[in-house]
Design a protein that fits this description.
Length: 630
């Protein structure tokens, strides 16, 4: 029997229905990923299954006695207790027994009260029967893997850490059906890899929503797609889904085109002169009315976000030069003898475990924090703009329009003023939503609004701290392309392996040995170049029995989109650098060169040095990519 069955499920919030008589069955052991654009109703569907929301119509049937656990996208209010207590709630009654046992045993320490001892013994027996000690061990394991501090009070934690606690709670409860809404948000790559393995080995049925394509690819055994109220199942992996979905949309285009042509022909017929009208065929008129109604009912696809960055005047060529930086916090070294030069146009990724100091490093590089040793030189004409999901740049109680406008109905976008309704439309918000409160938005819609707010400001240095959480794959890919083509400088903290691979030109990594290093390329390049692999073998699966060697493995894999692009662009880049180099050499060779002002001479010699370094990097990268491609 199916674990879960949805029958003719219908739900709406006043607008077009989010679910329109949806049917679905979920079998034991499946790992199903629910995909769909932001705001299509994925989280709402999950809430219907857990019972947190009631459908307008239809039935939800969960197998008798089946246990269900849910990680919601937004952290619910009013959860009391310490981290340990919240995670242990996942164990149900057993958690109660364990906490009673712990309390009692600490009370009776020293005094031998027979009644209490007997009570303690009884509790111990009950816990034994429910396999409680092993469950407690699981709680501790999940807490440690998710890098949580068991004694901290839940309410005092940041949003990102709260979600990790709730994830631990959902996992330890060993449910028959585990429902996860964006489980990778705010998790570092090592923890994501651990979670992937954990979920595979747990063997229970999984229904999940994720924006992390690598996570989705690794886990899903089936994809279900929620699009304009319809839920459709796509057996197989993500690649297969993408192809089939594209084919479905194409077929829809063709059908619409046919219908439109037919309707246009019939509209011409009905407008014909008196004579024709007199002989009008009533059946044909009824058919025309039906066609008109169908056309009106048709739900157009959600468009694409019109992402545009308003680039400020270019910054100087050298954006940041950090030399021999030392910085410690609370006696914990964050960076030690770290040097790096960021040039205009570089797209630098920053990766590392939660809490390792990525944001601190960004602040150091941008001159907001003073290093304890070493030097930071910031370039000229920098206009820095931040995107940070956790900084709460949106006011929940204000409307979408109020969040964007500084009074009035217009938004200042770069050098121009734009009407807020038009600007919101670029970000796929319909006019009627401008006066809605931010608190009613779905997770991805909220992130999209944050992007809208960010992109009003002109910048030549863009600093993005986890920008991909909750975004749907279409918007994510558009953001990728926008950043790839960005002429300014980008500093990007992300745990999204595919996003990092596709966007950055170099990566600063907080390596497992505690050192911070800079690598050419993205996440895959870091995997291949880092000193010692530290994470589970899960990062890439080596063949059984063969020794693990990252280099040949790298050779076998396909080039990523960004690598292919780099391979195409590198020869031009090298040529441009070499041309500039020979021009500068000619200038230096001119006897009058050293008679110029000292600063001009220094500028040229410095530039020659940086060209040489960049050429070296380009050649190495070219060699690497060539050998990967061959
Ligand atoms: N209680 C509510 N009242 C009014 N509108 C709501 C309510 N809950 C959700 N919505 C709206 O319903 C739509 C679907 O929301 P939902 O959170 O289910 O989307 P989603 O597919 O999970 O999106 P995302 O990918 O961004 O997480 C959104 O436009 C949201 O604003
Ligand atoms: Mg959602």
């Amino acid at each position: 029997m199916a674990l879960l069955t949805l029958k003719n499920l219908t739900l709406g919030f006043g607008g077009p229905p989010l679910l329109n008589e949806v049917n679905f069955t979920l079998e034991h052991g499946e790992r199903v990923s629910l995909v769909g654009r932001n705001g299509q109703g994925k989280s709402s569907l999950m809430k219907l299954i857990t019972g947190a929301l009631k459908p307008d119509d239809g039935q939800i049937k969960l197998e008798d006695g089946a246990k269900l656990a849910h990680l919601p996208q937004e952290v619910p209010d009013h959860i009391d207790g310490t981290v340990f207590e919240v995670v242990a709630q996942g164990l149900g009654d057993t958690a109660d027994l364990i906490s009673q046992y712990q309390q009692l045993s600490s009370q009776i320490q020293g005094e031998q009260n027979q009644v209490q001892l007997e009570k303690l013994e009884k509790l111990q027996q009950q816990i034994d029967e429910q396999d409680g000690w092993r469950l407690q061990e699981m709680v501790n394991k999940a807490i440690s893997h998710l890098k949580l501090e068991p004694q901290l009070v839940f309410n005092a934690l940041s949003g990102g850490v709260k979600r990790r606690v709730l994830l631990a709670k959902a996992i330890v409860s060993k449910p028959d059906l585990l429902i996860l809404d964006e489980p990778t948000n705010h998790l570092d790559v090592d923890t994501i890899l651990w979670l992937e393995q954990e979920l595979k080995h747990m063997g229970n049925t999984l229904l999940f929503v994720t924006h992390d394509r690598a996570f989705l690819r690794s886990l899903a055994t089936r994809i279900i797609d929620l699009d304009r109220g319809e839920l459709k199942s796509y057996p197989g992996d993500y690649e297969k889904y993408l192809k089939q979905k594209a084919a479905d949309l194409h077929a829809e285009d063709l059908a619409w085109e046919r219908e439109d042509k037919h309707l246009a022909k019939e509209e011409v017929w009905i407008r014909q002169g008196i004579k024709a009208r007199r002989t009008r065929n009533e059946g044909r008129v009824r058919a025309l009315k039906r066609l008109r109604a169908e056309r009106k009912e048709r739900r157009d696809r959600i468009g694409q976000v019109n992402l545009q960055l308003h680039e400020a005047q270019s910054s100087g060529h050298e954006v940041v030069k950090a030399t021999h930086l030392d910085y410690s916090w609370d006696n914990q070294p964050i960076v030690n003898d770290f040097s790096l030069t960021i040039m205009r146009g570089d797209r630098v990724g920053v990766i590392g475990p939660n809490g390792c100091g990525k944001t601190t490093l960004l602040k150091l590089l941008l001159g907001e924090l003073k290093p304890q040793a070493g030097k930071i030189k910031l370039g000229t004409k920098l206009q820095i703009c931040y995107f940070d999901q956790l900084r709460g740049q949106l006011n929940e109680e204000q409307t979408l329009a109020e969040n964007l406008c500084d009074g009035g109905d217009t938004v200042r976008v770069g050098e121009q003023r734009k009407h807020v309704i038009g600007y919101l439309k670029d970000f796929l918000f319909e006019p009627e939503r401008a006066r809605q409160k931010v608190s009613a938005l779905s997770g991805g819609e909220r992130n999209r609004l944050l992007l809208a707010k960010l992109f009003t400001q002109p910048a030549n240095v863009l600093v993005m701290d986890e920008p991909t959480n909750d975004l749907d794959s279409d918007t994510l890919e558009l953001l990728e392309v926008l950043l790839m083509d960005y002429k300014g400088t980008l500093l990007l903290v992300s745990h999204d392996r595919e996003f990092i691979n596709n966007v950055v030109t170099s990566t600063i990594a907080f390596d497992a040995d505690g050192k911070v290093r800079s690598y050419v390329g993205g996440y895959h390049d870091w995997l291949a170049q880092r000193p010692q692999p530290v994470t589970e073998k899960s990062a890439e699966k080596p063949k059984k029995g063969k020794p693990k060697s990252p280099a040949p493995q790298e050779k076998k894999r396909k080039l990523t989109y960004k690598e292919t692009r780099d391979l195409e662009e590198l020869p031009q880049r090298i040529e441009a650098l070499e041309t500039e180099q020979s021009e500068l050499h000619e200038r230096v060779a001119d006897p009058s060169f050293y008679q110029q002002e000292h600063t001009l001479v220094a500028e040229v010699t410095e530039r020659l040095k940086s060209i040489e370094e960049e050429l070296e990097t380009c050649y190495t990268r070219w060699d690497e990519l060539e050998s990967l491609a061959s």
